[in-house]
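DM from R.C. (forwarded with permission)

"hey, sorry to bug you on a friday — could you get me a structure for this? deadline for the figure draft is monday and I only need the backbone to look sensible"
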Amino acid sequence: MHCLRQRYGGNLIHSYAGPNMVVINPLSTPSMYSEKVMHMFKGCRREDSAPHIYSVAQSAYRNLLTTRQDQSVVLLGKSGSGKTTNCQHLVQYLVSIAGSTGKIFSAEKWQAVYTILEAFGNSSTSMNTNASRFSHVVSLDFDQAGQVASASIQTMLLEKLRVSRRPEAESTFNVFYYMLAGADSGLRTELHFNHLAENSAFGILPQSKPEDKQRASQQFTKLQAAMKVLGISGEEQKALWLILGSIYHLGAAGATKDGDEAGRRQFARHEWAQKAAYLLGCTLEELSSSIFKHQAKGLQHSSSFRGGSDDGGQGDGSGSKITALECLEAMASGLYSEVFTLVISLINRALKSSQHSLCSLLIVDTPGFQNPRLAQQQRGATFEELCHNYTQERLQTLFHERTFVQELERYKEENIELVLDDIESSTSLSVAAIDQASTQALVRTLARTDEARGLLWLMEEEAVQPGGSEEAMLERLFSYYGSAQGENKGANLLLRGEKPHLFLLGHSHGTDWVEYNAQGWLSHAKHNPAAQNAATLLQDSQKKNISGLFMGRASGATVLSGSIAGLEGSSQLALRRATSMRKTFTTGVAAVKKKSLCIQVKLQVDALIDMVRRSRVHFVHCLLPKAEAVGGGGEPRVTHGESADSGLMTLDVGLLRAQLRGSKLLDALRIYRQGYPDHMVFSEFRRRFDVLTPHLTKKHGRHYIVTDEKRAVEELLESLELENSSYHMGLSRVFFRAGTLSRLEEQRDVQTRRNISLFQAACRGYLARLAFKKRKIQDLAIRCIQKNIKKNRGVKHWPWWKLLTTVRPLIEVQLTEEQIRGKDEEIQQLKQKLEKVEKERNELRLNSDRLESRITELSSELADERNTGESASQLLETETSERLRLEKDMKDLQGKFDTMKKQMESMEMEVMEARLIRASELNGEMDDDDTGGEWRLKYERAIREIEFTKKRMQQEFDDKLEVEQQNKRQLERRISDLQADNEESQRNIQQLKKKSQRLTAELQDTKLHLEGQQSRNHDLEKKQRKFDSELSAAQEEVQRERSLKEKLAREKDMLTGEAFSLRQQLEDKDLEVCAVNLKLDQLDAELQDLNSQESKDEASLAKVRKQLRDMEAKVKDQEEELDEQAGTIQMLEQAKLRLEMEMERLRQTHSKEIESKDDEVEEIRQSCSKKLKQMEVQLEEEYDEKQKVLKEKRELESKLLSAQDKVRSGDIETEKRLRKDLKRTKALLADAQIMLDHIKNNAPSKREIAQLKNQLEESEFTCAAAVKARKSMEVEIEDLHIQMEDISKTKQALEEQLSRLQREKNDLQSRMEEDQEDLNELMKKHKAAVAQSAQNLAQISDLQAQLEEALKEKQEIQEKMQALQSQLEFQEQSMVEKSLVSRQEAKIRELETKLEFEKTQVKRLESLVARLKENLEKLTEERDQRSSSENREKEQNKRLQRQIRDIKEETSELAKKEAEASRKKHELEMDIESLEAANQSLQADLKLAFKRIGDLQAAIEDEMESDDNEDLINSLQDMVTKYQKRQNRTPPGRRRYCFDRSDDEEEEEEEGGATQGSYYSRYRYGSHVKDDDGEDRHYETTS
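My reply, with the result:
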């Protein structure tokens, strides 16, 4: 709890609990599910990754790739704990990380899938504002490459009655609110939503709040977009909206409560019903007859709601027919069920693929535990909530089985003794109270038996019984599982409620008690034809889009027994899943009870559990953080995407503890820690980890065959140097502690990487040698080519060689044409062959597809026949058991009949004897007395009575005999029928066996045929590949020939073109010569005309001169302007030169500063690296010292423990020995007393005195041994003190080293700060340079604008110059003065030179701009490098800080261990002191004993008179005095023990005589003895 609370407070919602994952719902979306986080977990092992939901997905995906075994992820928890959200994250991670071929499955497509599922399957409840109301399994099929090949979704346990009935303050499915709020005007008109109803029988009303309407409208737009992404067409969407709109209009239409006056059931508002019929594509009469007519007469009435009762729901409800409202609700639920199944089919259509898949990964998401009391609601739970809780209980049972039962069974099978705490039983008791089946479940009987069965079976039986009710059902349930039956039948899991219809059921091992209201539950077990007519109504619809969808679905088996949807799929794994689920519904009891609505709940969960059990399961436990977060009183909880306040990070400790106890996570973690969770078969382990021991491979050889796998694995484990406690050898596999196998895997990865690197190096060396060899060949070829070229240059000018080179291509052209024709013919033949092969291949493919379909059909038929055979065999077994029971009853009745017959005969004999005795008595009386008529009458009356009783008994006997004979005949008939049935079933079984054999033979034949076809197909494919290669070679050769032909044609065309162009040039030259001659003739003519008209042109000459003067003035003005522009250009050039110089200076200074900073940074880096190396060396030394200290500490602890054990054992032994000595001394005292008595009569014996002497010597020896042990302990304690001082010195040295490292860290930080300041200054200079360069760029742009203006003026001047040139040409023709013209031409040339100069200036400025840009780019690159180096230095600093932090933690651990050692030392010192005190007390007791012996000796001396015993007495006195002197040297003890003399000794003293009693003085003394519990008790002893 502390761990979870701390992690949750730090926004760490994921935690590992052994092999399982624990997720606490954060009630807000944290930023831990991004694509970047996904790639962090990609390819990681579970041991190397942090707790996350992506870690579970990666672990499952990794196991799938390595083991090629199906995987599954099961999400457990309460409602609102975030199971569906985590399911979405799992699918998103797997799709994005694994990928798919051709990117068929994208994250967008899966988001669209969950958008549709959320709209059609979720609703708002009291526990969750967006709760899933159905269970679903997401199946991802992967191919050989580990990519997603296909996917599908299977759904079950849909809460379809929520459309029409639900608890208060809860809503219907979300899609209705989305459609009412988001439909556009066209769709509203088509669905008749322009005028909505004010009330509805189903409670489907539009939302009232504007923000809710806006949110629903947005969700509807999102839903339509998701359908478009999944390829659902507009017509299919329209069909869905039409059916949903019809459900809404049916709720608005309503139904009459008690029917009309004629008792008919009909709609309450026919106009709304007419709208519903129009939307469904049928008439109102057809809709009304499907809902209200053709109802079963025996259908019982149910209450209006499962969780409570309405006006007409009170009472027993027996015999009344179903109401019109319930018929309408059944039709609505049936329509919605069909719509939901259709949606699942459309989703699977978008997700399916025809690619081959290898294994699959299942993700199971079910609604969580439902408890209305947790949401502060005062109502009982409904039947749907019971179904969801039952599903969670079954999944918890699967968790218990996988975690505890299978592990313990595996340990038992492998002979592994593991001492574990008591593991509590699973939740099988609460599950049995719901679904326990009877052993007579296959026998169709209406009788109520006393055999225990679950709630679902009781509901089915009570629904079939004529007088069945909920009260009778609950009474039977309590009689089976109530507390009256004792503890063995779940007395603690089923309790009665306060009201008659309420009962309490303890879920999750009794940690979650849910109160259920059973009112109206029997309606769930009764078939309603209106719900069954919904599918027929949709298939017969007049609207093509509706009927087309549902007619297509009717042909395929997409729904299993009307309960499990989404079984379509063409892949092999999808067919296997569908077959497994069908087998669950067609085997044993399911084959008989699969039509029952209650038993379908159990069968659906059985199918789910069976599908999950076939794979390796990964469990994710989702926990609810607090009870207030689920929202009571209608307040919505925090949805995903909204910000949560700080109060949400607190936890409800009680709720969390209850969830942990209910899930048994601590027990699972305990067995994971104490047991061996990882295990591998011997051969697999040896094959996988043999790479870690290459010396064993060298020892045995590469081709060594292992005969004893266990011995080989033991040798491998010994070479791996694992601890013996970390693994255990079983019979067939090796078991490992948690984490051991992961470490071996890591070592294997390292070794594999090393081996692959070596292999890559060898490959690269081989390729380099091949390349070198190829280069040598190429060098030889080049030399050969050079030699041939030299030879060619020698013969190039020979005429015969020229002739050969011209004639040879002409010969080859003819040859190539013939080759091309031959190749074309070959291509045609190959094409014909290819067409033929393609045709055969298509035929074979069709045959193989047909055979595969036939095989699948035969396999499905065979499975069905097997299932029917199994059900028949089970029925036969039940019938035989019934027959045996009847035979046993018949034998019992026969025995009773025999006993009754014997009793009858004995009674008849008694009656006969009594009658004879009575007759003799009567005859005697008649002889004695004649007046005996009265006796005779009595006698006759008695005889008549006897005869009457005899006849009556005979009649009864005949009747009983007849009844028994009838029973016997019935039994014989029944036995004969059973025998006939048995024979018929045997014949059926034989037929089925023959049919199965025939089918298997056909299957084998088809397989053989298929193999032959496949081999033939393979051969044809080989031929086709050969033909393709030949065809491609021929085509390449043809293409080469064609290219040569085209090249020759191009060369020919080029030559003809060149000849034609030469001819054209020659003709042009001729034409030009003719034109020049004509022009000369014209000039001569004009010259003659000018000479004749010279006088006429003087006026025109003056005009031309005037124009020339004007032109000269304009030219002068333009020259002045050009001079001004040249001045400005020169100024700009000077400014540009200044800027270049400034830039060069700045660049040099900047480069110098950068170089200096680089040098400083390099020096700092070198110093840091040196210091780092020093610190690493110091850390290594400290680590070695730490290891030494720890080793010494462990040795000291072991020595302390051994010394303590020795001291304790020695002290205990010495104490025992001293106690024995004390007892012996007591016995000696008694013997001395006896001896004194004997001495009075006789002389003392020497033997007894010698025994006393020996015993005294033994006691002295034991005392000396105790003293030696004490001294050795003191020496060891001194050694321990010295070692502790050494440890404290090493600790001080470590602390000094830590402080030194801290100082160095501070120096590094200060240097880093200085570097940061320098870097900031550099950045400032860099920014200034950038600003200056920007100004320069602005100036350059201005210059460019001026240059553009100059260019425009240049163009204008050129145009003017062209006009002047035309005029000058005219003047030349007019024989104007050539001096003016030459001057103008000179000016024009000057202007052209100036323009060229300006062009060069522009180019130079452009090059300057380019150079400035390059400088800017260099500066930016240098800045980036500086920033990257700064980041590296920061990371290095962080790494140093982490190292320092680790050193601090290690020093703190050393301090803790030192404190622990000092504490143990103190405890040992206290133990030694206590032992010394005990030793001293024992020595004091010995002293007291010897004092008594001295008293005895004095008494003996007084009494003895003979001289013979004086020597013996003197020796005893000397011994006693020696011992007293030795005892006086030891210090006095802390405690005094006093020993009582027993009553027997006192009696012996009294018997010894009064004279001897005078020598003993009675004294009283006290002592305090401390008990074990620490209390002082005072003892007084009289001696």
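R.C.: lifesaver. Residues 933-1092 form the longest helix (160 residues).
me: no worries. The two ends are 63 Å apart (CA to CA).
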